[in-house]
Every structure is written in structure tokens, then in C-alpha cells.
Amino acid sequence: MLSPITLLTMLSLLPFAFSTQLEWKGIPSSKSSASSNTLTLNTALSTLPPNTSLLIPNQTFYLSGGVYASNLINATIILDGTLKFDDSGRKNWPTESCTKGTCVKKAILIEGARGLTLTSTNVNGGLVDGSGEKWWGYVEYLIYGEDRPKLITLYNVTDVLVEDWHFRQSAYHTFHADDIANLEIRRCTIDNRFNDKDSHGPLNLQALNTDGFDVSGKNIYIHDCKVWNQDDCFTIVPTTGDGINADCTENVLIENVEASGLGLTVGSIKPTTNHACIKNITFRNAYMHHTFKGIYIKSASNPDPTASAEITDILYENITMDQPEQVPIWIGPAQEGDSENACSLAWPYVDRAECPAPNDTMKWTNVVLRNVMIKGAKVSPGIIFGNEDNPMEGVVFDGVVFDNFEDLEEAKPWGEDFYYCKGVQGVAMGGTTPVPPCFKKE
Ligand SMILES: *[C@@H]1O[C@H](CO)[C@@H](O)[C@H](O)[C@H]1NC(C)=O
Ligand SMILES: *[C@@H]1O[C@H](CO)[C@@H](O)[C@H](O)[C@H]1NC(C)=O
Ligand SMILES: *[C@@H]1O[C@H](CO)[C@@H](O)[C@H](O)[C@H]1NC(C)=O
Ligand SMILES: *[C@@H]1O[C@H](CO)[C@@H](O)[C@H](O)[C@H]1NC(C)=O
Ligand SMILES: *[C@@H]1O[C@H](CO)[C@@H](O)[C@H](O)[C@H]1NC(C)=O
Ligand SMILES: *[C@@H]1O[C@H](CO)[C@@H](O)[C@H](O)[C@H]1NC(C)=O
Ligand SMILES: *[C@@H]1O[C@H](CO)[C@@H](O)[C@H](O)[C@H]1NC(C)=O
């Protein structure tokens, strides 16, 4: 006869011996169930056996923030419905202690997973709604600053597929893959907007820091995705020698995407004592409708002379910008309001506004823009701004064309120079028009 313990063990094996799919039984359409839903979802995630799927059915479930899973193994989360985060803002949001004292918890944090698939069997995909409206606005920024919940974070995770998940109204950064190896993201969208305007005017830009896909690590492939937001759209975040799964953010391909916001971004990258690194990054086949910035490669500064960083082998190919609203091409120091020694948001319009060059402890090598078409730009083409003591090397503009370059002779802020161009060894070819004034023409 079987002992009760053996029987229990066998029974507990049954679900994944015969069926590898479990269903989470949340309470649908009930705002007041947000915290109990979060608890039961966390329990379902923490007890999910290896090689098992967890189904979130085709209904709307309120959650309170602090969804958490660690060390999942070959787990699949099938989101057929909507996860909607508490829409009362900071009031009910769970917090945790942090270096600053108390910080909000992330909406969703998955860490230490080995083998993870986020997918959907719904033809429309699954939806994650951050209810960010309550957190956005210039006044709210003064209150919360950047202590706002990131919508979904994958940290120290390997072998990941994310498909058919849609994210909207994130209170802060939307999607983070931090220190990850082997990630594919496809058919996903991000939409963070204050109103329905087809532009990034002052009202929409109030959804500050609503970054799209921020990724660091190695072997990352993002394709057939769309982002409309009010900060960086697709962002390559550096990794340092302290990384777990990579010591440099490298081998990243982002293709067949639409992006409108602060652009296709590399950085910002700041010299660190354990060497910050971004290498072998390609963006191609991107369409950028009414984007704010377009191509944006940015550094941050560090006074420590022993710190170092590199940006190496970056290619932007077949990129179309349709009526970009601010600077289309920005390669140089990050332009921000909130970091020390950053390039001022008022630069170069306001006399005393400063824009210091990138540090000479930061090496820029091989940045290529090929077949980049910019239609109807409203301000001067851009900046390519390195440190004159350690200039950017191998910067090539091959077929970088502004269709309205004649009008741009009168555009602000650089008029007939078109570009602010300094500290760079650059080459223009392939009909690049206009040619940056400090580039060699081939
Ligand atoms: C999970 O599935 C893989 C095959 O896909 C198998 O090799 C592995 O042993 C399974 N792991 C467990 C814990 O069942
Ligand atoms: C996870 O899945 C992969 C691929 O099917 C398999 O090789 C591996 O053994 C699985 N890992 C575990 C711990 O089951
Ligand atoms: C990263 O994840 C692995 C696998 O779950 C774990 O063993 C390791 O401790 C994690 N490392 C850190 C620094 O969190
Ligand atoms: C999920 O529900 C929506 C409406 O709520 C419906 O349009 C859709 O077909 C459903 N999908 C599935 C896979 O049942
Ligand atoms: C650069 O990254 C791509 C993936 O985007 C990869 O196929 C290629 O092998 C990498 N090149 C080098 C030199 O590592
Ligand atoms: C260039 O990118 C566009 C998307 O903006 C795409 O439709 C087109 O097929 C791409 N061209 C090539 C040659 O890949
Ligand atoms: C980096 O740049 C900032 C801004 O110009 C400057 O204050 C700092 O001293 C620089 N650091 C080094 C190591 O040169």
C-alpha cells in the first residue's frame, strides 16, 4: 500500500505529468479585489512547476502592484485577458524600503527565471494597463519625481520570448529587460499617451519617463513591435563588468518597428569604474511618425578619471522619420533636465544654458547611419558632438537625407550649418544632404 506521503507526492506531480497548463483563478472585473488578486497571482507564480504554463483567462483583472516571481524554470505565462493596475495612483500602491527610504514596488517583477515565455492565445493579444494617468503631469512630477512604478521588469533572466503582449499607460518606464541573455520580443506594442493628439506636444510630454523597451544584456532581438510614448522608445542600456549574464550590452538587433517618442536610443551611457559597454547594435527598417527625437545616442558624464565606457559598432539602417517634431539626429551628451552636467534642455536657445562635451573617458567607435530619410523636419538636422581630446571615430553618414534641406537653412538653432558638429572624425557619402560641416565628403 502507498503511504499517504507518497500518494500526496504523486498527486502533486499529476498536474504537470498529464497537463502542463494551470489556470489562475483571479476575481474578474472587481477593483476591490486588486490586492487579493495580486496575492493569489503571486502564489500561482511561486508554485508554478517547471515546464508549466499559467493561463490568465480572457477577462479583466485588477491588480495592486508588486506582482512578483523568482526563479521560474521554463515557465509560460499565457495572458488572454487584461491586467489592469490600481488606478488610484500612489494612495494604494504597495511600497518597499530602498536606499532613499521608501519606494513604490514595481508593477510586475520577474527575476532569476531560466526559460520564460510571455504569450497569448487571444487573437488580440493580452493587455497590461498601468493606469499611469494618475501619476503623470508636471505637478505630479514635483510630488513623485521618479518614484513611480515600472510596469514590467525582467531581471537576471535568460532564454526569454515575449510575444503578443500589449502595454499601455505606464506610470513610469514600461518594459525593462535588465541583464538578460537571449531575448526575443515580437508583435508587442507600447502606448503611453496623455491625449489622442497625433503629436508630442506639451500635454502629451507630461507623461514623463514613460520609456518603451529598455534592454541590457546580450543576444537580444526585437521585431515587429510598435511604440508610441513620451520618452525613449527602444533603448539600449549599457552593461558593466559587474553584469551577471553579460559584461557588455551586445548583439542586439531591432528591426521592422514603428517608434514615436524620444526615439531609437543608445544610452545614456556613463563611464564607470568597471567599464560600461554597448557594442554591436543594429536598428533597421524603422518608421517614425511624428517622433520627437529620432536617432538618439547619448552619454552621461562622470568626474572620475579612472572610469571608462565605450559605444562600439552601432548601425542605423533604413530609418524613415516623418515630420519629426524636435532634433532628428542627436549623437552626443544626453539632453536632460534631471542629471548632473547633462546638456541643458534650453541649450542652445538660452544664453547661459550649457552643454558640456562627452567625457574623454568615453570611447565612441563606428557609428554608421545608412539610408536614413527625414521628411519635413522642423528644426536643424542635429548634433554630432564628441570630446575634442578623444574624438568619435568612424562616424559615417551614408545616404542621410533631409528632403526639405533648403528650408532648413533658416531653421533653428543651427541655420546654414545644419548640424552642431565637433569632436568627431566623420565621413559623409551616398548623397548625404546636408553634409555635417565638420565631416569629410566622399
Ligand atoms: C522540461 O522539458 C524538457 C524538454 O522540453 C525536458 O528536457 C526537461 O527534463 C523537463 N524538465 C522537467 C523538470 O520536467
Ligand atoms: C527547459 O527547456 C529546455 C528546452 O526545452 C530544456 O533543454 C531544459 O532542460 C529545460 N530545463 C529544465 C530545468 O527543465
Ligand atoms: C541570477 O539568477 C540565477 C538563476 O535563478 C541565480 O542562481 C542567481 O543567484 C541570480 N543572481 C543574482 C545576482 O541575482
Ligand atoms: C476575448 O474577449 C474578447 C472580448 O472581450 C473577444 O473579442 C475575443 O475574441 C476573446 N478571445 C478569445 C481568444 O476568446
Ligand atoms: C552582432 O550581432 C548580431 C545579432 O544582432 C550577430 O548575429 C552577430 O554575430 C554579431 N556580430 C559579432 C561580431 O559578434
Ligand atoms: C525599409 O523600412 C520600411 C519600414 O519603414 C520597410 O517597409 C521596407 O521594406 C524597408 N526596406 C528594405 C529594403 O528593407
Ligand atoms: C566629465 O564631464 C563633466 C562635464 O563636462 C566634467 O565636469 C567632468 O570633470 C568630466 N570628467 C572627466 C573625468 O573628465
UniProtKB/TrEMBL annotation:
<dbReference type="GO" id="GO:0004650">
    <property type="term" value="F:polygalacturonase activity"/>
</dbReference>
<protein>
    <recommendedName>
        <fullName>Glycoside hydrolase family 28 protein</fullName>
    </recommendedName>
</protein>
<dbReference type="GO" id="GO:0005975">
    <property type="term" value="P:carbohydrate metabolic process"/>
</dbReference>
<dbReference type="InterPro" id="IPR011050">
    <property type="entry name" value="Pectin_lyase_fold/virulence"/>
</dbReference>
<keyword id="KW-0325">Glycoprotein</keyword>
<feature type="signal peptide">
    <location>
        <begin position="1"/>
        <end position="19"/>
    </location>
</feature>
<dbReference type="Pfam" id="PF00295">
    <property type="entry name" value="Glyco_hydro_28"/>
</dbReference>
<keyword id="KW-0732">Signal</keyword>
<dbReference type="GO" id="GO:0046576">
    <property type="term" value="F:rhamnogalacturonan alpha-L-rhamnopyranosyl-(1-&gt;4)-alpha-D-galactopyranosyluronide lyase activity"/>
</dbReference>
<dbReference type="InterPro" id="IPR012334">
    <property type="entry name" value="Pectin_lyas_fold"/>
</dbReference>
<dbReference type="InterPro" id="IPR000743">
    <property type="entry name" value="Glyco_hydro_28"/>
</dbReference>
<keyword id="KW-0378">Hydrolase</keyword>
<comment type="similarity">
    <text>Belongs to the glycosyl hydrolase 28 family.</text>
</comment>
<keyword id="KW-1015">Disulfide bond</keyword>
<keyword id="KW-0326">Glycosidase</keyword>
